[in-house]
Amino acid sequence: MSAKKSANPNKKNARASSTGTVQISFHHQTAREVFVAGTFNDWHPAASLMVEVGGGRWVKELALPPGRYEYRFVVDGV
Length: 78
Hints:
The chain is an all-beta fold. It is 0% helix and 51% strand.
């Protein structure tokens, strides 16, 4: 996966590899719930819950066909 800044600072870009697996990570010390919404789930804010792995780090592994995707994080409903 490669991620880079998009023209909109709130949106991120990701590229799915040929294996079809993308891991997205996010860091927020006080978050209680984090979702990732993007072009891969029609921007549905509650479709992809991330997993807290400790120390304020959240991850989500997605199985996606090769391509380019945009996404945003939804933290504690915002």
